[in-house]
Design a protein that fits this description.
CATH architecture of the largest domain: 3-Layer(aba) Sandwich
Number of strands: 11
Distance between the termini: 43 Å
CATH superfamily of the largest domain: Class I glutamine amidotransferase (GATase) domain
Shape: globular
Structural class: alpha/beta
CATH class of the largest domain: Alpha Beta
Strand content: 5-15%
CATH topology of the largest domain: Rossmann fold
Number of helices: 15
Helix content: 40-55%
Order of helices and strands: EHEEEEEHHEHEHEEEHHHHHHHHHH
């Protein structure tokens, strides 16, 4: 397998810590595989010194247009309001132009506020994407042609990948390592570099975290999250996973201890719970956005599983 060349993008006032951490994870993958799967270098609008956040000055080896990288990792910048994000994006107009002109064969990985730069550069149009939840209303309004998926902390798409938070590089790199190696390799790397565990989900959904380690059930989760709730039938799910309904039912029963219908119902309700916590959508908007037949049946199902109404759930767990 040829080496994947990753450009680590520097720009004025960017937060570079995630770039160093991503490079460490890529190096750990090389060590785990005992071969050079990944290479990386710092790039910028122009080669030379770049003054990043906190007065740190770093050196870019090449201009982004000359780097010939296959993937570009775009970090975030410090901002605590949509207005500051908008101002920062406008201030980076030359960089946005360079990203827009970048060869479309170059995949882009963006996280935190860096996603706003990719959106402004028209790199995410007509694709699924996510970003830090508090930017949701502004990004949705300014870039309506992007398929924003605010219920997800990371969206790993065929062309480009995006994630929320200052540690958003982690799920993006994890997906790439799993793609070129396997999930077990990523678990080894995560243990080796002592990555922090994600914060616990509300207890009603915690058992899904353990089940998600099974490759088939992880793929099932992704299919369920893309499918409207009213269309999650066993036969169609099995077909999407290239398996038989009987095999899918047996594996779900073995791994999750319940029927496919019960497991899928819980997956969809967890997705609804995430959307309640990570977006400003009303309960009705969450219900219809996830493809439930009607509000009342969704509210009843959610209350049976969570032990509280969707509104009470949001009040209790939202930060």
């Amino acid at each position: 397998m040829p080496t994947l060349d990753v450009g680590l993008l520097l720009y004025p006032q960017c937060m570079p810590a995630g770039l160093f951490a991503a490079a460490d994870l890529l190096q750990a993958a090389n060590v785990r595989a005992n071969k050079a799967l990944f290479s990386w270098q710092f790039v910028a609008l122009r080669g030379g010194a770049v003054r990043c956040a906190h007065g740190i000055e770093l050196h870019a080896a090449l201009a982004v247009e000359d780097a010939r990288c296959q993937v570009l990792l775009v970090p975030g910048f410090w901002a605590n309001s949509a207005a500051k994000v908008a101002a920062a994006v406008d201030a980076q107009a030359p960089l946005v132009g360079a990203l827009r002109a970048l060869d479309r064969r170059v995949r882009c990985w963006g996280y935190c506020t860096g996603v706003a730069l990719l959106a402004a550069a028209d790199r995410l149009r007509d694709e699924p994407a996510t970003a830090s939840w508090w930017m949701g209303p502004w990004l949705s309004e300014r870039f309506p042609r992007i398929d924003w998926q605010w219920g997800h902390s990371a969206v790993i798409a065929r062309r480009n990948s995006t994630a929320s938070g200052t540690h958003g590089y982690q799920p993006i790199v994890a997906a790439e390592v799993e793609r070129v190696l396997d999930a077990e390799a990523w678990r080894d790397i995560a243990r080796f570099v002592v990555l922090p565990q994600p914060p616990p989900a509300p207890s009603v959904f915690q058992r899904l975290e353990m089940v998600d380690a099974d490759p088939l059930l992880r793929r099932l989760r992704l299919v369920v999250e893309r499918t409207p709730a009213c269309d999650t039938r066993l036969a169609s799910l099995a077909a999407a996973l290239a398996t038989t309904p009987r095999t899918l039912a047996r594996k779900v029963k073995l791994a999750a201890g319940c029927s496919v219908g019960e497991h899928v119902r819980l997956l969809k309700l967890r997705q609804a719970g995430e959307r309640l916590l990570q977006s400003s959508q009303t309960v009705a908007q969450v219900c219809h956005g996830l493809g439930y037949a009607d509000d009342s049946s969704f509210r009843r199902a959610f209350s049976r599983v969570a032990g509280m109404t969707p509104t009470a759930f949001r009040r209790r767990y939202a930060t």
